[in-house]
Structure formats: structure tokens, C-alpha cells
Amino acid sequence: MDKIQLKALAKINLGLDVLRRREDGYHDVRMIMQTVRIFDRIQLVKQEREGIRVRTNLYYLPANENNLVYKAANLLFEEFDLRGGISIDLRKYIPVAAGMAGGSSDAAAVLYGLNRMYGLGLSLEQLMERGVKIGADVPYCLMRGTALAEGIGEKLTPLPAMPPCNILVAKPGISVSTKFVYENLHANDLKPEQHPDIDAILEGLRHQDIREMAEGLKNGNVLETVTVPAYPVIQQIKDTMEEQGAAVALMSGSGPTVFGIYEDRMQARRAMSAIRKSRLAKQLFLTTPYNNNRRNS
Ligand SMILES: C[C@@](CO)(OP(=O)(O)O)[C@H](O)COP(=O)(O)OP(=O)(O)OC[C@H]1O[C@@H](n2ccc(N)nc2=O)[C@H](O)[C@@H]1O
Ligand SMILES: Nc1ncnc2c1ncn2[C@@H]1O[C@H](COP(=O)(O)OP(=O)(O)O)[C@@H](O)[C@H]1O
Question: What class of enzyme is it (predicted)?
């Protein structure tokens, strides 16, 4: 196989709690991950000439060793002493530095794609062990679907699929770095009432009850305690989505992207128009949960 086309899917966090700051500076988390149907497209083509070449449609992203797709390819090229080179064409649609794991998902797709193209024979678990060296969310991006993530995000337990629903995703025109958010959380000083009730969300998921999940998701992301005071636009988007009939609206990951869950498609469409008119968001998507574990390549 000389060529492969991949889709790298984005995620949202259906609840995110940070338990403690660890000695190594990372944080132990407890969060529910959900893949959504927003994706980047990646094409890998084998080259005779040695080296990893990256091209992307976004001028402001690194097209060198700092791109996570480069890091993923480099990891497997070095470990398996692969011959020749590879060109990576990355078409980005997932908002960048947004809390949607775009870069991590791109890296996951490259690990998956190279494993197939070069017949490396690595299992999903073996790919995940390599993925965590690139980023805490990469193992989850390899697994996809609905999952509980613990440890730094790499300890994964599959969960019942999120019930079908409509998810409105709005990214304001600001970028927030994950590092900044974790550093400003002061996780070890959080009061018990500041921690979201992840178990309540899990119960809602087990009952396949969006309303029950939504109840648990109010204040379901502890990282909002850092970003909402710093960026009022996040709260404004949440309020607008809820005024427009969302069961709940929550920031995803380290933000600043906000998602709203709508049971009714028409209502979600109306909410999308309202957010568009408000000009609170720079990027706006109406999407659905992804739970098919078949890889699309
Ligand atoms: C917040 C979350 C929630 O899903 O997602 P995003 O907002 O990035 O999408 C993740 O925990 C982000 O995972 P990821 O973005 O892969 O993290 P990494 O690249 O490994 O680390 C970026 C920075 O975040 C901090 N970090 C990350 C994960 C973690 N459990 N504890 C941390 O303290 C690290 O100190 C690092 O400086
Ligand atoms: N393939 C990539 N896609 C997006 N960002 C990338 C990529 N490779 C490296 N980066 C860098 O990683 C940073 C955060 O990436 P991203 O995964 O989009 O954020 P988040 O983890 O918040 O979802 C960006 O600022 C960018 O410079």
C-alpha cells in the first residue's frame, strides 16, 4: 500500500474533572470523552526520498517537526527504521487550540495509517502506548467512541454510546492553550463543591437519558473555573445556547469551544442561526455523536 486517506475525528468532553496535580506537573483527570463527526482529512503517500514532509491548508500551523503529525510519523519511522520517506497532506477543519483534540486526533490517524501502510502489526493497545508519548489525548483518539478517561487521560474504559442527539459546536475567535488552563487551575486547592459529579453523568449515560446526563453536565467541566472568568464570551455562548433550548451547554476540554446538546434538530438549527447572528462564534458546526468503531480510511 503506497497511499492512504484518513479521517481524524474531533472530540468533546461530556464532563471533565481534575482530581489532583501530580509531581511531574501533569494532572490526574476523570472525564467522559465523546467523538463527534467533525474531522480533518489526512493523506499519507510513500516517497522514495527519505524524510517526513508535511503540508497543511492552514498557514499558521507548523509544517515541520512541531506538527503533531510529524511527531507521530517520526516515532514509528525511528522505532521501526522505516525506509524511504512519507508525505503528509493535512486538511484541517477541526478548530485549532480549541479543546477538541484536533492535533491529537491527527497524530492518532497518522499512527493508525502508518501501521497499516507498512504492515507493522501493532495492535490498538500497542498504538495507544506509543500515542501517549505524543499527547495525553492521543490514546483516546485512537480508540474513539464514548469512553471514561482517567490517569492523565490515557486510562480508558469504553462506555455505552451517547444516545443520538444534535450537538452545536461554537468556537469563539480566541485561542486558549491547554497548558495555561491547567497551570491556572490550582487543582489541589479546589473545594469539593467545585468538582463536577462525573458519576451522575455516567448514570445518565447508562440510562441512555439525555435529560439526566444534561442535569449532571451543568458545571460539568472544572476547567471552566479558569476560562470563564478570563473569557466572558464563553459564558455568553453557553447562555445563548441554553436560551435557545439546549438541554445543556458546556465548554469542551480546555476550551474555548462550547457545545450545546439538542434533542430536536429544528431547535438546534434555530440555535445555530441565533449564535451566527450574535457573532459570538468564529466557527460554528452542527454535528452528531460518532460511535461506529469501524475505521474509515
Ligand atoms: C484538556 C484536555 C481534555 O480532554 O483536552 P484539550 O482541551 O487539550 O482538547 C486534555 O486533558 C489535554 O490533553 P492533551 O492536549 O493531549 O495534553 P498534552 O498535549 O499531553 O499536554 C498539554 C499540556 O496540558 C497539561 N496537561 C495535560 C493533560 C493532563 N492530564 N494534565 C496536564 O497538566 C500538560 O502539562 C501540558 O503542558
Ligand atoms: N496537526 C495539528 N493540528 C492542530 N494543532 C497542531 C497540530 N500540530 C501541532 N499543533 C499545535 O498544537 C496546538 C494545539 O492544538 P489542538 O490539538 O488544536 O488543541 P486542543 O488540544 O486544545 O484541541 C496548536 O496551537 C498548534 O500550534
Answer: transferase
Say how far apart CA 210 and CA 272 lie, in whole Å: 20
Pocket test of ligand 2: the residue of 12, 68, 89, 234 to mutate, having most ligand atoms within 8 Å of its CB, is 68
The three cell numbers of residue 245 are: 433550548
Cβ of 172 less than 6 Å from ligand 1: no
- The CATH code of the domain that includes 198 is 3.30.70.890
From the list 11, 71, 92, 171, the catalytic residue is: 11
Rounded to whole angstroms, how far apart are CA atoms 59 and 172? 19
Kindly state if the Cβ of 171 falls inside 6 Å of ligand 1.
Answer: no
Q: What is the pLDDT of residues 13-59, one digit of tens each?
A: 999 999 999 999 999 999 999 999 999 999 999 999 999 999 999 99
Cell digits for 96?
Answer: 485549532
Q: What is the ipTM of this complex?
A: 0.95
Structural domain of residue 20, as residue ranges?
A: 3-158
Residues 40 and 139 occupy one common structural domain: yes
State how far the Cα of 202 lies from the Cα of 149, in Å rounded to an integer.
Answer: 12
Catalytic residue check, 11:
yes
Q: Is 137 a catalytic residue?
A: yes
